[in-house]
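User: Structure with zinc ion, tokens only please.
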Amino acid sequence: MFDDLRDLYQEVIFDHNRNPRNFRIIENADRKVEGFNPLCGDRLTLYLQMEGDVIADASFQGSGCAISTASVSLMTEIVKGKTEIEAEELFKKFHEMTTGKDENFNLEAIGKLAVLAGVREYPARVKCATLAWHTLDAALKNEQQAISTE
Ligand code: ZN
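Assistant:
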């Protein structure tokens, strides 16, 4: 990865950590799931408002490290307006990107989420980045149980 691109990615992560988007409670949310990453201590509660199979609104509360906060902040922005199937596809792509199993992963296909591609070089941080998505996955499957990455 080019250094200037890496700097840009870091700036986006810092920005989302400082000013998390959709950091609020949705009253009477259709889906509400808690996620916990014991390795790092990241905790979040994800709220979804559904309209049919479309995610009409997404928000979160909680506290965690910069990576987990930036990841959930970006995720709530990106999944809004997406169908459940589209959101699940993004989750799959995000998982492939962060676990780095595909050497030729197309970063352009994942848009803004590419800013978190760097975590694949730090295995301990992968769970920080994917916690939000595992929690979303549970929310979309309408599982009520809290999610733990361990
Ligand atoms: Zn973390």
